Amino acid sequence: MDLNILYEDNHLIVVEKKPGILSQRDSSGVPSLLDYVKEYIKKKYKKPGNVFLGLVHRLDKQASGIVVFARTSKAARRLHREFAERCAVKMYAALVENNGSAEPGKWIERSDLLTRTRGRSQIGGIAGRGAQSARMRFMVMAANDAFALILVHLMTGRKHQIRAQLGATGMPVAGDVRYGSRLRCADDSICLHSLYLSFMHPTKKEPVSIYSVIPERITEKIVIDKALQERIWQVILTQSSV
């Protein structure tokens, strides 16, 4: 499998995941991105046997974008701690079904309790009784009659969090029929992409900022010109410096 390597050094490797690929192998036994990256490292560095590779965070199978792996146990411990303490800045691009309720250019906050029921994340529940706090905010960057392109600043990392909260807002991610979308993509992907990630390097103690290009399955449904790209980048930079 051809990998799009976004960053690589002796301590970590950052890869762009394509939709339809698991971040980590599940009970199905289907090869995952973790397996593919391990194979890449074994071949590139001529390492015999098994190699250490720690998955720092996950993306849903149907989504795409930035995934970070640690190449040493020390880097894995430090990166897991940083992500668990919510020090990393995580920004997503999402194409959603436009209901016209969100004013472009303004952050909309979502703070909910999420519970897991029959493979879905649902809004509601009681704190301490299986429900988890879920915080994010989003901004509409562009819209047409059918869709809106939004930028999501994810503050917690609950399973299906963005998908559930946007669905509850009445703006489901395009292609995400599980959370209310009327559109089904041919490859069963959803229009959710991990666009930007900023974190502290586990050993160098300097910031690492990774940016991924918005994929065609989103850009084919809404025009993203140079001016819009610049606005998106400026919003990201502003949030990264907060």
Please give a handful of descriptors for the protein shown.
21% helix; 5 helices; 242 residues; alpha+beta; Pseudouridine synthase; single chain
- At the fourth level of CATH, the homologous superfamily is Pseudouridine synthase
Number of strands: 11
CATH class: Alpha Beta
Largest sheet: 11 strands, mixed
- The total of helices stands at 5
Rg, nearest Å: 18 Å
- Measure the end-to-end span: 38 Å
Descriptive overview:
With 242 residues, the chain is an alpha+beta fold. It has one domain (4-240): Pseudouridine synthase. 21% of the residues lie in helices and 32% in strands. It has helices at residues 33-44, 73-84, 161-169, 216-219, 226-240, and strands at residues 4-8, 12-17, 54-55, 64-70, 89-97, 108-117, 120-123, 132-143, 147-154, 192-200, 207-211. The protein is globular. The mean pLDDT is 93.
What are the SSEs and their pairings?
Elements: E1 4-8, E2 12-17, H1 33-44, E3 54-55, E4 64-70, H2 73-84, E5 89-97, E6 108-117, E7 120-123, E8 132-143, E9 147-154, H3 161-169, E10 192-200, E11 207-211, H4 216-219, H5 226-240
Task: Give a brief description.
The chain is α+β, with helices and mostly antiparallel strands.
